[in-house]
Design brief:
The complex is a heterotrimer of chains A (about 270), B (about 350) and C (about 300). Chain A has about 270 residues and is mainly alpha-helical. Chain A is about 75% helix and about 0% strand. Chain A has one domain (about 60-265): Orthogonal Bundle (MetI-like fold), CATH 1.10.3720.10. Chain A has 11 helices and no strands. The two termini of chain A are about 45 Å apart. Chain B has 12 helices and 10 strands. Chain B has helices at about 1-20, 40-50, 60-70, 85-90, 150, 165-175, 185-200, 210-215, 225-235, 265-275, 280-290, 330-340; strands spanning about 25-30, 50-55, 75, 125-135, 160-165, 205, 220-225, 240-245, 250-260, 320-325. In chain B, strands 1, 2, 3, 4, 5, 6, 7, 8, 9 and 10 form a 10-stranded mixed β-sheet that branches. In chain B, α2 links the parallel β1 and β2 (about 50-55). In chain B, α6 (about 165-175) crosses α7 and α7 runs parallel beside α12 (about 330-340). Chain C has helices spanning about 1-45, 60-70, 80-115, 120-135, 135-145, 150-160, 175-195, 200-210, 215-225, 225-240, 245-250, 260-265, 275-305, and strands at about 50, 55, 70, 80. In chain C, β3 (about 70) and β4 (about 80) form a beta hairpin. Chain C starts with a helix and ends with a helix. Chain C has a two-stranded antiparallel sheet. Chain C has a two-stranded antiparallel ribbon with strand order 3-4. Chain C is mainly alpha-helical and about 300 residues long. Chain C folds into 2 domains: about 1-35; about 80-305, MetI-like fold, CATH 1.10.3720. Classes of the chains: A mainly alpha (about 270), B alpha/beta (about 350), C mainly alpha (about 300).
Chain lengths: ~270, ~350, ~300
């Protein structure tokens, strides 16, 4: 009858944790449920219906915004991960050299500054360039996204790199492999899960960005989050619930892949 | 290695496709939110094979600020009449001469030569309306035709009133409420205006634009608002009533203009001409529920708009309407200062 | 021998140079699209505002002065800028409360996950990561739906008879607080978990062997050991909360401004770019202070471990 004494047990912690999980998922759950509401209200249930999903799929603006979000996210994530991998290789597993801490701070700078400050800075900077060059395509958004994605890609890669065993690479060198060959056939495959983790993290971070995109975008360059922001401020309908549900589904898929990839530890 | 090259190729293709969108005809419109009929836009797109993008703004000041900073990429904008002279004097508008376009003959006589754009060199009428109050009569049964709803909130409405944060609208209302004339620079009146606003603010629940949806869902019980927006609210909930403040209310019009640094000038001119066609103007009004300045468009508007209390001003209030006009720069500066102080 | 030393030295120099080359792309991108523009903000904070936004290239201190002082419109008296000060105070206060609340809720949650057996731990981690990777807007919208007058909470309370009519929860400081706690909670749990995962539970056993109560074990063994996680989590919550813009905008109703909203206002209706720039720099400085606090504490706790 007496509960077995466990060293790990703390009073009330399990209860609070359970409440926490419940509280985390309840609002999202309600949101998803009302995406299937047949009526137009956001809180009065009028039966099950898929009409809002149909409406979302037919909404030209939503489709374009989503495609744009994906375009930016893919390019930004790829470039950021490539740059971050190089930067990680350059800043880890070495004796501290001059400028290392500075570099480290530099690379992680976007994480340390509140987004609104960066957004404002980019607004001022890019609008000058836009006037000066006349180019106002997606390049600015991609550049901005790449910049703040770099630290997010950098951290998992660095973590993985630091935990790697140097002996394998030394063995390769002993077997007369050139530095490039060592990198390609030994370091890279070992580093791959870290790079993949960094890539996915960067992708999600870019996809989710609201503030910086909102300030930097030009005409007709809405991404899905900025479109949603506009709608939330002005005209909320269950169509927003439908869009949110689809977005949520995408996030869950990515998280699942992420966990799967990380499980296969080499 | 092959995987890397294929991913890089994919990325390059995506990058290239981002530039492709600009290949065909495009038109980038910057307009008030929830103010453009999607059906009408579709008609324009099909007729002229042009891809239209619409970006929303919430207030004249936001629009001006965004375009002023440069490189926004917009071709057209829809400022209110009291801001049009500012846009012109700042050199932001392109002189497209709608007064000489084919459909100009359809513009109502009284709007053909307005003082804010003589001979219509820059703009085309988009819509016109009134700033008033909108009240949910289930919550408050008293007189809705007064600015006291927001400046001296009755007990039932305390903590349930919203004020749409369009600076000129709110300050004009406060000026009229305190017996002044629009654009007055009289410091005693402005002091009273400042005090009225600051005193009233704690009774407000929010300062937001999304009135249509939030009045419908009961988050707001009353608000300062525009008549077309009130019309749409009433269609959703018959208990919502639009009020014509007896202290005085402002008649405004919004006007479609082309930006000086527009990249798609030809398409923009086509759109200006398109908007002067009665059928298109009528289609637009059917969506946003405001009157427009094109003669003959009534035939294309839904029947309930003819006698709607929001559109047809009741006789007793007809004389209280004041036309919107641009205030002198010193007065505008004072208004901005008062507005900033209100933001506490 | 010196020949060998010279070769080693040359090698070392080449290695450092290669490392600099490798890090160039990342550094360049960040310089152009993150750090560089910040310098421009500093410059702009010292210019004069244009009549309708943008700036005029005349140096002045008015931007910085306006951050702290204001001139009354009508009697020209100089006084403290109440509006700005109250927004600063509100922002810092709300961020601190958010941090504390997320800590109070996040600590047990992280501990719970860390003490699960290995097979189910993956599942719990998965469950806590999903909200973390869900878009901020979606999470804010979810809270909006629940607390509005027609929302879930009011409906249930009215059904249970606890409320007579809907209680206004949206558009208050409380709404912003709820939104921020909800949005930043995963950011607190994950670093805490990372710290707790490494916890050596034998130390707890030792504590119990010495007749400690569970609370004493918590206070004197667990908490000091996971201090790096606590500090990391607090920083990860405090800094974004301070600069929050989306959540207060949607949940605050435009009446309760936080620092992020105030800054944005200057670039829109406020038409005062230099003031906006000065406010941004001020925000950054507050953040720097918080970070300094973090760095000093993180270093300190590392040294104390036996």
């Amino acid at each position: 009858m007496a509960r077995q004494f466990s060293v790990r047990r703390q009073t009330g912690f399990t209860a609070i944790a359970m409440i926490c999980f419940f509280a985390l998922y309840l609002p999202i759950g309600v949101l998803v449920i009302y995406a299937f509401n047949a009526g137009t209200s956001l809180s009065v249930w009028e039966g099950f219906s898929l009409r809002w999903f149909v409406k979302a799929f037919e909404n030209q603006q939503v489709i374009e915004a989503s495609i744009r979000s994906l375009q930016i996210a893919v390019v930004a994530a790829l470039v950021a991960t490539a740059a971050a991998t190089m930067a990680a290789l350059a800043t880890t597993r070495t004796e501290p050299y001059r400028g290392l801490t500075l570099k480290y701070a530099f690379i992680n700078q976007p994480l340390m500054i509140p987004e609104i400050v960066t957004a404002v800075a980019l607004l001022i900077f890019f609008s000058r360039i836009k006037v000066w060059t006349g180019y106002s395509g997606l390049g600015y958004l991609i550049a901005a996204h790449t910049a703040f994605c770099i630290p997010f890609a950098y951290l998992p890669i660095r973590a993985r790199l630091e935990n790697m065993d140097l002996t394998l690479e030394r063995a390769a060198a002993d077997l007369y492999a050139t530095p490039w060959k060592t990198f390609r056939y030994v370091t890279l495959p070992l580093l791959w899960p870290g790079i993949l983790a960094g890539l996915m993290l960067a992708f999600v971070i870019s996809l989710d960005d609201v503030v910086i995109t909102e300030f930097v975008k030009s005409a007709g360059q809405d991404t899905l989050p900025t479109y949603m922001l506009g709608q939330l401020r002005r005209a909320i309908t269950p169509e927003m619930n439908a869009i949110s549900t689809l977005f949520l589904l995408l996030s869950i898929c990515i998280v699942t892949v992420f966990f799967f990839v990380n499980k296969k530890r080499i | 290695m092959k995987r890397i090259t294929t991913t890089l190729a994919f990325a390059a293709a995506l990058l290239a496709s981002t530039g492709l969108a600009h290949a065909e005809g495009v038109l980038n419109i910057y307009n008030w939110g929830n103010y453009t009929s999607p059906d009408m836009i579709k008609k324009f797109e099909d007729q002229y094979k042009v891809k239209v993008t619409i970006t929303d703004y919430d207030s004249n000041d936001t629009a001006l600020a965004k375009v002023r900073q440069g490189g926004s990429g917009f071709d057209m904008v829809v400022p209110s009449q009291n801001y049009v002279p500012i846009w012109i004097s700042e050199g932001l508008l392109l002189e497209t001469d709608p007064g000489k376009m084919e459909n100009f003959k359809n513009v109502a006589e009284v709007w053909k030569n307005p003082e804010f754009d003589p001979d219509r060199k820059y703009t085309v009428p988009w819509a016109m309306g009134i700033v008033g109050t909108v009240v949910n009569t289930d919550v408050y049964k008293g007189d809705v035709n007064t600015w006291g709803i927001i400046f001296d909130t009755p007990a039932e409405l305390k903590g349930k009133v919203n004020v749409v944060p369009e600076m000129t609208d709110v300050i004009d209302a406060a000026v009229l409420y305190n017996g002044g004339t629009k654009c007055t620079g009289d410091l005693t009146i402005l002091k009273k205006v400042r005090d009225t606003l600051v005193k009233a603010k704690p009774d407000w629940v929010a300062m937001e634009y999304g009135t249509i949806e939030k009045m419908g869902s009961g988050d707001f019980a009353a608000s300062s608002d525009w008549n077309g927006s009130a019309f749409r609210q009433r269609l959703a909930n018959p208990k919502i009533k639009f009020g014509y403040p007896k202290e005085g209310f402002v008649n405004w019009s919004d006007n479609l203009a082309v930006l000086k640094d527009a990249t798609n000038v030809e398409n923009a001119k086509l759109f200006q001409n398109f908007m002067m066609d009665p059928e298109n103007a009528g289609m637009n009004s059917a969506f946003h529920r405001y009157a427009n300045g094109i003669a003959g468009s009534e035939a294309f508007m839904p029947a309930d708009m003819k006698d709607a209390p929001e559109i047809k001003i009741p006789a007793e209030f007809a004389s209280k309407g004041v036309p919107s006009q641009t205030c002198p720069p010193e007065v505008q500066e004072l208004y901005t200062k008062i507005w900033t102080e209100l933001q506490k | 021998m010196s020949e060998a030393a010279k070769v080693i030295e040359a090698e070392a120099r080449r290695d450092v140079r290669n490392r600099w080359l490798l890090s160039m792309p990342a550094l360049l991108i960040i310089l152009l699209a993150a750090v560089g523009p910040l310098l421009i903000v500093v410059v702009y904070s010292f210019l004069t505002p244009g009549p309708y936004g943008d700036v005029q290239w005349q140096p002045t201190l008015s931007g910085w002065i306006n951050v702290f002082l204001e001139r009354d419109i009508f009697d020209e008296t100089l006084s403290l800028a109440d509006a700005h000060i109250s927004i600063f105070v509100r922002s810092v206060w709300l961020s601190l409360v958010t941090t504390v609340l997320t800590l109070l809720v996040g600590f047990p949650t992280a501990y719970f996950i860390a003490t699960r057996p290995d097979n189910s731990r993956e599942l719990w981690l998965f469950l806590i990561t999903i909200p973390f990777w869900t878009n901020l807007l979606i999470r804010t919208f979810a809270i909006l739906q629940i607390i509005r007058n027609e929302g879930l909470i009011n409906n249930i309370m009215i059904k249970l008879g606890l409320f007579a009519s809907p209680v206004q929860m949206l558009f208050t400081d409380g709404a912003i607080l709820t939104g921020m706690v909800y949005v930043y909670l995963p950011l607190m749990v994950l670093p805490l978990y990372a710290s707790m995962e490494k916890l050596d539970f034998r130390l707890l056993e030792a504590g119990y062997d010495l007749y400690a109560t569970p609370f004493q074990v918590l206070r004197r063994i667990i908490v000091p050991l996971v201090k790096p996680g606590i500090i990391a989590g607090s920083i990860l919550v405090f800094i974004p909360a301070l600069g929050a813009y989306v959540t207060p905008s949607i949940l605050g109703g435009g009446k309760n401004l936080m620092l992020g909203n105030l800054i944005e206002l200057q670039f829109g209706q406020g038409r005062n770019w230099p003031l906006g720039a000065a406010l941004s720099i001020t925000l950054m400085l507050i953040v720097m202070v918080a970070l300094l606090f973090y760095v000093r504490n993180a270093k300190g706790s590392g040294a104390k471990h036996g």
